[in-house]
Specification:
By secondary structure, this protein is mainly α. Helices cover 67% and strands 0% of the residues. The longest helix has 17 residues. The radius of gyration is 19 Å and the shape is globular.
Length: 242
């Protein structure tokens, strides 16, 4: 039995058999027209998925990860990403990390949920573009007109923010500032807030320029930690939204 089948077998031991997964399906909008349309859940909690990851990541190959990413089951894909992140972080060889990053980038269609993106992009794409200086990867993803690629493009910059590099987040945010989807509004606002938590002088010029056109949710996320007076200033600017 290959490792991907062993992982699936192990996940099945943790699946929720006592109740249906309608609450999960509603939360992740798997209904017709939702961003997660068609996704399927077996009810394995994140802590249990991480247990499985710790048990199997050392012996799991990239082919095994590909097999899991191809699964229609959400938890199979999420566990495969936990494994890929762990292997990426443990790898000491640049060529191994590149192979893992390319596997990820070539399978973003399968990283098709905000939790999948948020659990992986900042830990794989972020370090990879910083290590290789291939920052145009972020721009290409942001310009793709593909929801999950665009979310990857901005969430990946969280790693760069933590390393003190803010310009890439600001550049990608500028590309996404007029986006129509709530999942991008929240992601961009969140990353702008993370910049502000470290350096208001880097966040505020962006808000001065874009507060009047930013979607309301994006703006509110971006200013969430501001002092009341400063927050009110930008809320007032946002009310003049063009």
């Amino acid at each position: 039995m290959n490792e991907s089948n062993k992982i699936i077998e192990s996940l099945n031991k943790y699946r929720n058999t006592k109740k249906d997964n309608k609450s999960l399906e509603k939360f992740f909008q798997v209904y017709s027209g939702g961003y997660g349309e068609g996704d399927k859940f077996i009810g394995v909690s994140v802590p249990n998925q991480r247990k499985v990851m710790e048990q199997f990541y050392k012996e799991t190959s990239l082919d095994d990860i590909q097999n899991l990413l191809n699964s229609e089951i959400h938890e199979h894909r999420l566990t495969s990403l936990y494994i890929l992140v762990k292997k990426y972080q443990k790898s000491k060889k640049a060529e191994e990390r590149e192979a893992m990053a390319l596997l990820y980038l070539n399978n973003i269609d399968r990283v098709n949920g905000w939790d999948l993106v948020d659990s992986s992009a900042q830990h794989i794409v972020g370090p990879y573009v910083l290590e290789t200086s291939k920052f145009d990867i972020l721009d290409n993803l942001a310009e793709s007109n593909h929801l999950w690629k665009q979310r990857v493009s901005i969430i990946a910059t969280f790693y760069l923010i933590r390393q003190g590099h803010y310009m890439h987040t600001l550049r990608i945010s500028e590309k996404l500032v007029n986006h129509k989807h709530d999942l991008i509004h929240k992601a961009v606002g969140w990353m702008l807030r993370e910049i502000g938590n470290r350096s208001l002088k880097d966040e505020l010029p962006f808000l001065d320029k874009y507060a009047q056109i930013m979607p309301r949710t994006m703006l509110r996320y971006a200013i969430e930690k501001f002092d009341p007076e400063l927050r009110d200033k930008y809320l007032t600017m946002g009310q003049k939204r063009k």
